[in-house]
Structures are given as structure tokens and as C-alpha cells.
Design goal:
The chain is mainly α. It has 43 helices and 5 strands. Strand 4 (about 270-275) and strand 5 form a beta hairpin. Helix 24 packs parallel to helix 26 and helix 40 (about 795-810) packs antiparallel against helix 41. The protein is globular and about 100 Å long. It starts with a helix and ends in a 6-residue tail after the last helix.
């Protein structure tokens, strides 16, 4: 069942809330209660939660799931604020991947709910869910982990216990070897085996020459039961999970008058009482007992019991589709089981348990021969579930396969989905191959080279110059579906290629914008104007000015229509433009605002939201908000891993790795960098390769190896220039700043001194020509480092003072602290020491562990 590790726990919580005063239940209703009820519908039985059960949730499934997880965490936190809370999850080895994700959310710092969480489970392989959940050795001030291993008794301990059980019956000790062999060190089984022999002796019997076997013991005990008790036990064991007591008695043919049977079987340690949805239930006393009982049943009897359980489940007021499926399958009624598997998969999707949904859709497809239309529908549902579960690479070939069995626009749309999933999961070559074929069928050109893409982009710009950005708004239903598909295909190509092959990405963005203006569909126009406009702004010059004008048009359209998607996207794009201009506080504000609008009011916008979140991360880095960068990067990484967004995952990992260096964890930063590169294609030179280069060079310098950093950078610089990435102003500043720092660090260490100083001077000149004030301040710091290496102390002081003033004016306290620290070093004396202390205090407060080594990376070249 979905979130099966939490099923009994949420049932218990529901019962507790139902028995509490209304005010108590109302006090623990969290933010996003409707998303929580979507995850756990049983909570709707509580009136304070039930009023949210039918609240509309027209949001992206991942956003609903994220909110549901956050709501569950918030609810437990509110409960823990009122009283001590203990969560006990037994049999964690049966947990599913969806349960694993929820449990990790509960434990995630900071401010995790104050809980005592007990996880009990059998030993499992290292790749099992329970092993992964409990393998995390990280402990914080908030969380302490205590492990109590309750392993089997050693052989000598088993012998000792068995011997004590036979103290009154010395002749029974001849069975100790069998007990050691059969019990596997389980105290319960040791007791049951000894008890069996003792019972035989009391009845005047003997095991005789037979070897004592647990299976034989259980079968002997079952044979001694009355027929009604035996049938009751068989039904409970075949059910395989806790069963409503009244239902079990009814199926056993005895009804409520047979309740003494439950006591008898309990005393015999064959069944035990439990609760099922708040009422009395029963289950097998031990897994081994259940297994032996079921194995001993003839196949026809097992099938008959499963059939009875299936009929009973179907006839209940609210059938559990997964239970029905499992029993129909056990009854070998495969076509019916397949239908219920599909229903169970739909329920799992509705509760956002996407992994379980995918498993059930696969079973539904394998158990029956469906007509073509239904088979295609189920396969598409399977692919959608895989995408939602973060397994887009597995979904892509399914979309492609279904496409071969369709025709017309449906076929083309499925191929578009396949191409997009290949691209966003990092399978670039497969995605590009799909795009080429798709674009040929849509009669859209696919540039065969970067040069052709440039020519195509210029052609599109000329078309814009002639026609402008005017359009006649039309309803989507009135527009030719093939035209809409062509627009969506261009958008898929732009999203997938912007961070891989940026020239082609911009070309497809411009093409999509031109087509959407012709079509007149307002949402696509807004989307493409925002996407294309931000790219044109980055080009600078007349094209950049034109890009700013069309973005202003997009903002007016958003304000006029009040469309949440356009409002959110236009805010994010405004933030991207602010990033391009080096207005970091504005970039953060606008991206956060846009991301919030999209998250709260839109669905199917994961890519757009992540663009805003990644830009916000960069803005926070420049603003020196180290703690917030790490927190957000970790959150983005987790979500990106869950949905298979390779772009966002790599970006989040690289931000986290960068600040690992600040905390002195260079080995961790290198490992994180290696992981990001392993996720990415090695064909071509992309943004991911450049930022990995920057990280590795920072690690080299931090460890006192500027020569290694210089060699690393010189080896890659030509490829970076050829890639065209330096045409983007943000990458251009980052590239020249990285080169300037690396080469200046090498020069200060007497490595390639003349060549290194010339390269630093060229990078400083490039930075000084940028429109960004902070880039010009970085140029001054580089020039001050050159002056220091050349012994021009007064010139260095002058440049550093100017850089401090610029950084402060731009609201960049950490960058200002770097320059002030160097200024204090160069100034010397008591005034210099005071400035250094102040700068060190700023860096320490932001999480920088070793300011001297960190400065060697960010303000190299100074000799004091």
C-alpha cells in the first residue's frame, strides 16, 4: 500500500485525534492540510482535517507531494510542542521508497520535529530501504541516533536457554542440537520448540528418532486444532496482513460466536490480536508460522481462501484496491486482478506514491491482454508515474513505444515527451536524436552545426524586426493543434539544450516565440516572451535592448491577464535580468516571489520553478548568505533527485561543494564535483564543465597548490572559449574572475610569474569593461594583487579601498570583507589590525572556517 511504513502509524494518530477534544485536533492542523489529506485520506475522519478533504489542488503533483510531506512534518511538530511524541515504525524492512522519502523529510534539519522515533526491522541487504534509512551516521545537535542491535543468540547462549527450559526434564536435553539448528537464535522459536517437546512428554509421547524441525512442530500443532480453528488460522495466514477480526470469523464460518477461537489460538502463539482501522483485528503470531501454514495448504485451498478474501474486500463499503488485487492474483483470477491493479495504481498516484503506482501499472499490464486503446492508456499512465517518481529516463522509451502504436498528432506528442525526458535526465545524445526526427516530421529545421544555429538565430531576429511582437489573442481550442505542438516542441528543445548547447537553445527559443506570436495563444506567448527575452538581454547591445522591451511587454500581459503562470514566470525572468545586471538583491527578491506564485497557484511548472530557485541560489552566494545557500541547495538537490532533474541536481551539488571548501572540507568538495561530472555528458564543453573546473581550481589553491590550478585552467581555457559560453555576461564575468584569481595565485607563488601576471591583467581589463559594478570592483582587487606582487604597495591600497567602497555600495558584505582584509594587511599597524579583525569577524559569522586559506582563493596575490 502507499506509504506502508506509515499506514499503521497514521491509523493510530487518527484514532488519537478522534478521541481528543476538538480544540486539540484543531491546534495540530498544519499548513497545507489539503495536501496532507491527499497523502493520508484516513485523516479526513477527523473533523478538523475532513473539512479540507475536498479542497481543490490544481498544482503540480510534485508540489502537492512536497506540501503533503511538509504538512506531516508540521503536524507532528505541533503535536510535539504540546506533549512528548514517540513514533514507532515496526517491520521497517517492508518500507517502500515513498515511505523512505517521507521519513527522511521528518528527520531533515533544521528544526526537525522533537520526536523519539523507534525503527525496528530485520537485518536486510545494504541496498534495502531500511538499510539506507538507518545507514546515515550524520548526527547533529538536534538529532542523536542510538542503535540497539538485537541479534540472534549465539550458539552457546541458545544452548544455555534451552537447557534452562529443560531443567525439570533432563531427557529433553537430547533435542538441544535440533533447537540450536532450527531456532536460528530466536528466543521465541527456542521457547516454542522446547514447549513442543515438553507438551509431548506430558502427553506420554516422544519425538522419537525424528529430528526436531520447526516446520514439523507448527504443522503438528495445527493438526491438533479443531476444523473451525484450523480454517480461521488458514484465512488469517493467507491474508498476509492484519485482518478485521469479525471478517475473519465470518469467513471461517463461525461468526462472532467463534471468538473463543481467537483466545485459544492466541494462547497457542499462532495468532495475535491487533487493530485494523480502529477496530479489533488479528494476524499471524510470527512470519515463520504464517509461512509454514501457507506452504502446507494445497494450492486449490490457498486459491479458495484468496477468492473468499477478494469477494469480502470487494463487498466492503470502501474496498482497498490493492488488497483486492493481491487476493485475486492469489486466486489466479488474473484478468480481474489486472483491473484492480490498475485501480490500485491510480489510487497510489492520487496519494502521490509514484513509485508504488509505477509498480502496480507494470503488474496490470503483465497480467492481462488489453485492447490497444486501454494498453496504450495504461502505458502512458506508467510513464507519467515514472516521470513523477523521478525516473524520466525509464519513462522516455515507454513514451516512444506507445508512440509507435499511435498515429497523427498523438504520435508526435508522445515523441516530444520522450525527447524531453531524455534531455532533462541527462541522456543528451538520445534526446537530440529524438529531436532531430521529431523536427523533421513537424517540418521545422534543426541546425546541423553551431554556425548554422547562429545564422538561424540572426534570421529569426530579422523576422522580429520586420513583424515586431504584436499578436491577436485567440483561445487555445481555436488554434490548430499541430501549430501548438510545434511551439511545444521548440520549448522542449530550448529547455533541454540551453545548458548543453546554448546557441541552439536560444535559436529554438526564438523560433518558439515567433510561432507563438503567430498562433496568439496567450500563455505560450507569455512563456516564450519571458524565456526568449531573458536570453536576448544576455546578448547585450541592440539585441539586449530589444529583449528588455519585449520583457516589459510580457510583464504588461501578465498584469493585464492576472494569469498566475505568467505573473510567476515574468517575476522570475525579471530576476534573471537583474542577475545579468549584477543586481543580486533584486534578483533574489523577484525570483523568490515568482517561484512562490508558481508553487502555490500552478501545476506542471517544475522546470520554471527550478530556474527561479537556481538564480536565487546564485544571488544568495553573491550576497554572502552562506547558511541559506546550503539549506536551499540541499532542498533543491533532494527534490531534483526525486524527479530526475539532472540540471537542477548538478547546480545544487555545485553550490554545496563550493561552500564545503569554505568549511575546510576540500575532500568533500572534490568528491561532490566528481559526482556532478559523472552525471553529465562528456561530449562538448558545457556550463557544468566550467563550474566544475572553477571548483577544482578553488580546491587546488585552498590546499596550497596554485601550480595545479593554473595547469588545470590553462588546459581548459581554449575549450571554454570555443564553447561560446563566454558570450553570456554572467559566465564571462565568472570565467575571467576565475582565470584572474588562479593566475594571480600562481604568480604570487613564483609560478609562471610573467605569463600569469599578463593573463591576470587581461582578465582584469575584461572585467573592467563590464556594465556590472561588482565586476569592476573585482577587477580592482585583481589589479591590487598585481600591484602587490610587483611591490607597488600604495597603488594596491588605493585599488583595495575603491573596491571596498563599491562592494559595500552594491550590498555585497562578504566580497567587501575580502578586500578589507587585504587592505588591512597592506596598511599594517594598529589600524590595519583593526580592519583585519573586523573583516575576519564578517567571514567567520558567514561560516568561513579559515579566512587565510579562503582569501588565498578569493583575493590572491598579496604579500602583506
Amino acid at each position: 500500500m502507499p506509504y506502508k511504513a506509515f499506514d499503521a502509524l497514521v491509523d493510530g494518530l487518527t484514532r488519537a485525534l478522534l478521541s481528543s477534544p476538538d480544540a486539540v485536533a484543531a491546534a495540530v492542523v498544519p499548513r497545507y492540510p489539503s495536501a496532507l489529506v491527499r497523502l493520508f485520506p484516513v485523516l479526513a475522519r477527523v473533523p478538523a482535517f475532513g473539512e479540507w478533504a475536498d479542497a481543490p489542488l490544481d498544482l503540480d503533483p510534485h508540489e502537492i507531494r512536497r506540501r503533503g510531506f511538509a504538512a506531516f512534518r508540521d503536524m507532528l511538530g505541533r503535536l510535539a510542542d504540546r506533549q512528548p511524541v514517540v513514533l514507532w515504525i515496526d517491520d521497517l524492512q517492508w518500507a517502500d521508497l515513498d515511505s523512505e522519502a517521507l521519513l527522511r523529510e521528518l528527520r531533515r534539519p533544521p528544526d526537525a520535529p522533537v520526536l523519539l522515533t523507534l525503527l525496528s526491522y530485520r537485518d536486510e541487504p545494504d541496498d534495502a530501504v531500511s538499510s539506507r534509512i538507518t545507514a546515515d551516521d550524520d548526527t547533529t545537535v538536534e538529532q542523536q541516533v542510538v542503535r540497539l542491535r538485537l541479534g540472534p543468540l549465539a550458539e552457546e547462549e541458545t544452548r544455555e536457554l534451552a537447557g534452562k527450559l529443560y531443567e525439570a526434564q533432563p531427557e529433553g536435553k537430547r533435542y538441544v542440537d535440533d533447537i540450536v539448528s532450527e531456532s536460528a537464535g530466536s528466543p521465541f522459536l527456542i521457547g516454542e520448540l522446547a514447549r513442543h517437546v515438553s507438551a509431548l512428554r506430558l502427553l506420554g509421547g516422544d519425538v522419537g528418532s525424528r529430528t526436531l524441525r520447526l516446520g514439523d512442530v507448527i504443522r503438528d500443532r495445527v493438526r491438533q486444532l479443531s476444523p473451525p480453528a484450523r480454517r480461521f488460522l488458514e484465512i488469517v495466514c493467507v491474508a498476509g496482513q492484519p485482518l478485521d477480526r469479525s471478517l475473519a470469523l465470518k469467513l471461517a464460518g463461525v461468526g462472532e460466536r467463534g471468538r473463543p477461537l481467537v483466545t485459544t489460538l492466541g494462547n497457542a502463539c499462532l495468532v495475535r490480536s491487533t487493530t485494523v482501522h480502529g477496530g479489533p483485528g488479528v494476524e499471524a503470531y510470527h512470519d515463520r508460522i504464517r509461512e509454514v501454514v501457507v506452504e502446507a495448504l494445497p494450492a486449490r485451498v490457498t486459491r479458495a481462501h484468496h477468492a473468499e478474501l477478494a469477494v469480502a474486500a470487494i463487498g466492503s463499503p470502501n474496498p482497498d484496491p490493492e488488497a483486492v488485487f493481491r487476493h485475486l492474483l492469489g486466486a489466479d483470477r488474473r484478468p480481474e486482478a489486472a483491473e484492480w491493479a490498475a485501480r490500485a495504481a491510480e489510487r497510489a498516484s492520487n496519494t502521490l506514491a509514484f513509485v508504488r503506482a509505477a509498480e502496480l501499472y507494470r503488474q496490470a499490464l503483465s497480467l492481462a491482454t488489453w485492447d490497444v486503446e486501454r494498453s496504450n492508456s495504461l502505458e502512458i499512465c506508467l510513464a507519467d508515474a515514472l516521470v513523477n517518481a523521478g525516473r524520466g529516463a525509464a519513462a522516455a522509451p515507454i513514451y516512444s513505444g506507445v508512440a509507435t502504436r499511435n498515429a497523427g498528432l498523438a504520435r508526435l506528442e508522445l515523441r516530444r515527451r520522450a525527447a524531453e525526458q531524455h534531455l532533462v535526465t541527462g541522456h543528451i545524445e538520445e534526446g537530440i536524436a529524438q529531436l532531430r526526427s521529431l523536427f523533421a516530421d513537424l517540418e521545422l529545421p534543426y541546425p546541423v552545426s553551431t554556425g548554422r544555429a547562429w545564422l538561424g538565430l540572426l534570421q529569426r531576429l530579422l523576422q522580429f524586426a520586420v513583424r515586431g511582437t504584436a499578436f491577436v489573442a485567440r483561445d487555445e481550442a481555436a488554434i490548430d493543434r499541430r501549430m501548438l505542438l510545434r511551439i511545444d516542441a521548440c520549448d522542449s528543445a530550448a529547455k533541454g539544450l540551453l545548458q548543453v548547447d546554448p546557441i541552439r537553445g536560444i535559436y529554438f527559443s526564438a523560433t518558439g516565440l515567433l510561432l507563438s506570436l503567430r498562433a496568439g495563444e496567450i500563455r505560450r506567448i507569455g512563456r516564450d516572451v519571458c524565456l526568449g527575452g531573458s536570453l536576448f538581454v544576455a546578448a547585450g547591445g541592440p539585441i539586449g535592448a530589444w529583449g528588455r522591451r519585449i520583457l516589459e511587454r510580457a510583464r504588461r500581459v501578465a498584469d493585464d491577464t492576472r494569469d498566475p503562470y505568467l505573473l510567476g514566470l515574468s517575476a522570475i525572468v525579471t530576476g534573471i535580468v537583474a542577475l545579468t545586471d549584477g543586481k543580486w538583491a533584486e534578483a533574489l527578491r523577484d525570483c523568490d516571489a515568482g517561484t512562490q506564485i508558481l508553487a502555490e497557484q500552478c501545476r506542471g511548472v517544475a522546470w520554471e520553478r527550478n530556474q527561479g530557485r537556481m538564480v536565487a541560489l546564485r544571488a544568495l552566494e553573491e550576497l554572502g548568505e552562506v547558511g541559506e545557500v546550503i539549506r536551499r541547495a540541499d532542498s533543491l538537490r533532494q527534490e531534483a533527485e526525486e524527479v530526475g532533474d539532472i540540471y537542477a541536481q548538478i547546480t545544487a551539488r555545485q553550490f554545496a561543494a563550493f561552500w564545503r571548501i569554505a568549511k575546510g572540507d576540500v575532500a568533500g568538495a572534490r568528491e561532490e564535483t566528481s559526482k556532478t561530472l559523472a552525471l553529465w555528458t562528456h561530449r562538448g564543453y558545457h556550463l557544468q564543465h566550467f563550474y566544475a573546473l572553477r571548483l577544482q581550481a578553488c580546491c587546488d589553491i585552498y590546499e596550497g597548490a596554485p601550480r595545479a590550478a593554473a595547469v588545470r585552467l590553462l588546459d581548459a581555457w581554449a575549450a571554454l572559449k570555443r564553447s561560446g559560453l563566454l558570450r553570456h555576461p554572467v559566465v564571462r564575468v565568472d570565467g575571467h574572475l576565475t582565470r584572474g584569481r588562479v593566475m594571480l595565485a600562481a604568480a604570487a607563488a613564483d609560478v609562471l610569474t610573467r605569463r600569469a601576471l599578463r593573463a591576470t591583467a587581461r582578465s582584469a581589463r575584461s572585467l573592467s569593461r563590464e556594465a556590472r559594478a561588482d565586476a569592476r570592483a573585482h577587477a580592482d582587487v585583481l589589479r591590487a594583487g598585481i600591484a602587490s606582487v610587483r611591490g607597488r604597495r600604495l597603488r594596491a591600497l588605493e585599488l583595495l579601498r575603491g573596491a571596498c567602497e563599491r562592494f559595500t555600495a552594491e550590498g555585497l558584505p562578504l566580497a567587501a570583507a575580502y578586500a578589507r582584509r587585504r587592505w588591512g594587511e597592506m596598511l599594517g599597524g594598529s589600524a590595519g589590525e583593526r580592519i583585519m579583525r573586523e573583516a575576519d569577524a564578517v567571514m567567520t559569522s558567514r561560516g568561513i572556517q579559515d579566512s587565510v586559506r579562503w582569501l588565498a582563493v578569493h583575493a590572491p596575490g598579496f604579500t602583506g
